């Protein structure tokens, strides 16, 4: 019998409707896969009992002809989304044992659509990282292996557990969050599709905040169609998040299949710096050819402030993080370390509760916001951010979409010595500009390098134009015929 | 851009994160490295540029200024490390 974990969301949706198998059978197949793949450390908190209970409810609704858009589909939820009655940690010691009394809007919408939560997925602590190595609960291993390296590989980050679970067939899809590339880069490293929608498409309510002006939730799946199905459910205005858009949510799935004939695709010269990895550059060229073959017009464009994006991000994001993470003080939730005074209790609690990278970013953020430095750092960064956003606005006068590589390299080894924070930050060089501009971006698996590792291509469009985004992504998917991992026996 | 130990101590106090004296030097080195990399932004001309302070281009919606939640003391306190008589409890603040 075919392993039920091998199906796409779209296929499983149809087969569940035709009663070829039950939601409980589908969920049990995924729970068995999670058990076998424990070594990947993709889940911080598996929730098999909740999954089985919800699968049974799904079967009842399927029987009654009341199926939702994701009825019976087993999904993983990044452990940054608060889930009622289920521990939510943000992969930090400081939140260990925190059990939310409420459900995030996005996970509630997924639940209301009938999906089945398999568990809470591992990530970099507070979503700060590009390799999933900063998790208090240990790193995630990618299901992929390099030909040349016996070591395990990182899945990317921060949504590393999500990427590993979906590429390794432990979940049909997963939620991710993207602040500077945290959906797109791990999707590229693990050979799956990851979509960061326009800032404001998804409610941030109940999602543990990192940098509020950048954070966006999005789907991570094995196909472009699955991402479109999942994203539609996740989007929509929420009175509890004033930055969530009061705009109608398009039927993203309906945009698929329209192709790119007549579209103008921009190729930004700043994304091809001297020394760009040759295989990444070659894959990008291949992508450009696929666009031409499908009838699109290629337009050379310039995004002149690209090189300023990473330093801008590393002022804006830590500044917002230092403010957002002030709430972890040992008073209302999470871990507390006692002290003689209130201040001492705060200082000890936060010293013990946060990991090295999180503390580093809080300190940077505190510094750039402190008296005497605010104008030189934070205000300056906000102005440069405006210039970066304007680069994209100008570009979208001339083009309908932009095509770039997602990441400058393929996945690296879990044991690679990585002591220089700035070197690690460079992983996000191609994803951060779109985050700062608030525009939608997606990574689609496009090929393997000579070491047998996935490489992704990134598609960007203007705000609120995810439909064009999905059209371009599907053309890449169709042309690439990406060699996915085999379903584990 | 180079930070000294006194600056790290001041920032750590502002951030309410205890940094042991033994770690001040190493923290200063790492943060200085990041800040000197960030300093390249000073070369970007931002004359007459308005700062971008949020992620959206939409006008934020208004809502009625009414109480629309509450009466859930047990839920609010459910995760408190220490709670007493319906309040969060902390070390003594006023002598």
In words, what does this structure look like?
The complex is a heterodimer of chains A (489) and B (95). By secondary structure, chain A is an alpha/beta fold. Chain A is 38% helix and 12% strand. Chain A has helices spanning 9-17, 23-36, 48-63, 105-112, 160-167, 184-190, 224-234, 252-255, 278-293, 309-324, 342-353, 356-369, 374-398, 421-425, 432-437, 466-480, and strands spanning 43-46, 74-78, 116-121, 173-178, 193-196, 216-221, 264-268, 297-301, 401-405, 441-448, 454-460. Chain A has an 11-stranded mixed beta sheet, sandwiched between helices. In chain A, α10 (309-324) crosses α13 (374-398). Chain B is mainly alpha-helical and 95 residues long. Chain B is built from 3 helices and 2 strands. Chain B has helices spanning 5-15, 21-38, 73-77, and strands at 83-84, 87-88. The longest helix of chain B has 18 residues, at 21-38. The two termini of chain B are 42 Å apart.
How is this fold's topology laid out?
The complex is a heterodimer of chains A (489) and B (95).
Chain A: H1 9-17, H2 23-36, E1 43-46, H3 48-63, E2 74-78, H4 105-112, E3 116-121, H5 160-167, E4 173-178, H6 184-190, E5 193-196, E6 216-221, H7 224-234, H8 252-255, E7 264-268, H9 278-293, E8 297-301, H10 309-324, H11 342-353, H12 356-369, H13 374-398, E9 401-405, H14 421-425, H15 432-437, E10 441-448, E11 454-460, H16 466-480
Parallel strand pairs in A: 2-3, 2-4, 7-8, 7-9
Antiparallel strand pairs in A: 1-3, 4-6, 5-6, 5-10, 9-11, 10-11
Helix pairs in contact in A: 2-3, 5-6, 10-12, 10-13
Chain B: H1 5-15, H2 21-38, H3 73-77, E1 83-84, E2 87-88
Antiparallel strand pairs in B: 1-2
């Amino acid at each position: 019998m075919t392993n039920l974990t091998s199906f796409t969301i779209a296929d499983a949706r149809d087969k569940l409707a035709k009663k070829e198998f039950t939601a409980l059978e589908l969920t049990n197949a995924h729970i068995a896969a999670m058990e076998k793949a424990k070594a990947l450390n993709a889940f911080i908190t598996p929730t098999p009992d909740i999954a089985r209970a919800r699968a049974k409810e799904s079967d009842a609704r399927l029987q009654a002809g009341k199926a939702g858009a994701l009825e019976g589909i087993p999904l993983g939820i990044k452990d940054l989304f608060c889930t009622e009655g289920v521990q939510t940690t943000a992969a930090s010691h400081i939140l260990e044992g925190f059990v939310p009394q409420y459900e995030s809007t996005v996970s509630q919408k997924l639940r209301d659509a009938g999906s089945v939560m398999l568990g809470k997925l591992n990530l970099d602590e507070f979503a700060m990282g590009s390799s999933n190595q900063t998790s208090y609960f240990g790193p995630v291993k990618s299901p992929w292996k390099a030909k040349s390296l016996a070591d395990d590989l990182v899945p990317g980050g921060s949504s590393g557990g999500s990427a590993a679970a979906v590429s390794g067939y432990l979940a049909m899809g997963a939620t991710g969050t993207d602040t500077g590339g945290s959906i797109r880069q791990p999707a590229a490293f693990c050979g799956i599709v990851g979509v960061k929608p326009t800032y404001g498409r998804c409610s941030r309510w109940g999602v543990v905040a990192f940098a509020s002006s950048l954070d966006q939730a999005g789907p991570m799946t094995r196909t472009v169609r699955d991402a479109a199905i999942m994203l539609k459910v996740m989007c929509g205005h929420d009175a509890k998040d004033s930055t969530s858009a009061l705009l109608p949510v398009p039927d993203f799935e309906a945009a698929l299949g329209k192709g790119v004939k007549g579209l103008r695709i921009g190729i930004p010269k700043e994304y091809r710096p001297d020394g760009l990895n040759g295989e990444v550059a070659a894959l990008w060229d291949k992508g450009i050819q696929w666009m031409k073959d499908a009838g699109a017009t290629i337009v050379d464009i310039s995004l002149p402030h690209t090189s300023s994006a990473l330093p801008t991000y590393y002022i804006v994001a830590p500044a917002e993080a230092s403010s957002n993470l002030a709430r972890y003080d040992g008073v209302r939730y999470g871990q507390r370390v006692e002290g003689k005074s209130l201040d001492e209790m705060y200082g000890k609690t936060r010293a013990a509760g946060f990991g090295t990278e999180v503390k580093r970013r809080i300190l940077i953020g505190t510094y750039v916001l402190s008296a005497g430095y605010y104008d030189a750092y934070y205000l300056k960064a906000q102005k440069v951010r405006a210039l970066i956003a304007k680069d994209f606005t100008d570009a979208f006068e001339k083009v309908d979409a932009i095509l770039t590589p997602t990441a400058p390299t393929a996945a690296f080894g879990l044991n690679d010595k990585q002591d220089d924070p700035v070197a690690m930050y460079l992983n996000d060089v191609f994803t951060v500009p779109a985050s700062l501009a608030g525009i939608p971006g997606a990574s689609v698996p496009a090929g393997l390098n000579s070491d047998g590792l996935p490489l992704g291509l990134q598609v960007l469009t203007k705000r609120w134009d995810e439909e064009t985004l999905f059209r371009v992504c599907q053309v890449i998917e169709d042309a690439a015929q990406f060699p996915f991992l085999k379903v584990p026996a | 851009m180079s930070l000294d130990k006194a600056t790290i101590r001041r920032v750590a106090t502002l951030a309410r994160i205890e940094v042991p004296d033994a770690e001040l030097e190493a923290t200063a080195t790492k943060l200085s490295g990041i800040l000197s990399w960030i300093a390249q932004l000073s070369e970007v001309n931002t004359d007459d540029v308005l700062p971008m302070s949020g992620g959206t281009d939409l006008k934020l919606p208004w809502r009625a200024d009414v109480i629309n939640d509450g009466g859930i003391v047990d839920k609010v306190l459910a995760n408190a490390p220490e709670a007493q008589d319906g309040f969060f409890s902390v070390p003594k603040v006023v002598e």
